[in-house]
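Supplementary Text 2. Reproducibility record for the structural model of the 200-residue chain.

All settings were left at their defaults, and a single model was retained for analysis rather than an ensemble. We include the record here because the model underlies the residue-level annotations in Supplementary Table 4.
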Amino acid sequence: MAVLSMLEYIFYNMMNRIVSKQREAIEKWTGQRICPKIKKKLDKNIEFAANCHVTEASQQIFRVQSGKNSYTVELCLHTCDCRRWQLSGVPCGHCIACCMEERIDPETLVHDCYTVQTYLKAYGYIVVPLADPKEWEKQNGYKVYPPVFTKQLGRPKKNRKKTPEEKIKSGVRVLNKKGVTMNCSICGRADHNRKGRYRW
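Retained model, structure tokens:
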């Protein structure tokens, strides 16, 4: 029953999460195109774009000077030499500086995966609550019971079992003798040892 309880806990947590995300997006984000966290990142990039100097090279291709570095921005291909735009899908400061030059709204260049509409699609599924176990259909399978707990004698071990490679005693590696054939030190035969104890 521990596994069943865990699965039910995960199931209802998912159900509550989907409902809360739907309600949050519908009630708080109305009238917005992109999600609030992405909007904050975009605003930071807009502040950074104020320190960039833009020079137009050709149609929708620009050279952007930012401090001691220069970058090439292609608005038609959604690329910038700093690669932030390609990796994140959010226009970088160099791209936004070019958008200001061309009078383009930077929000229109944000990838569609960050829009509120896509967010609602991701959480648009409905998780139907489970029926009571009494209502479940009976199956002709074996009944699964939890394992029988048997308390071991002695104090429980806290340290894990080490492999032979880890057993080091006073700087020397100690190997396990399990599986090694022990011979008698007197006659050399393997069926007994020097104390006369036979192994069958």
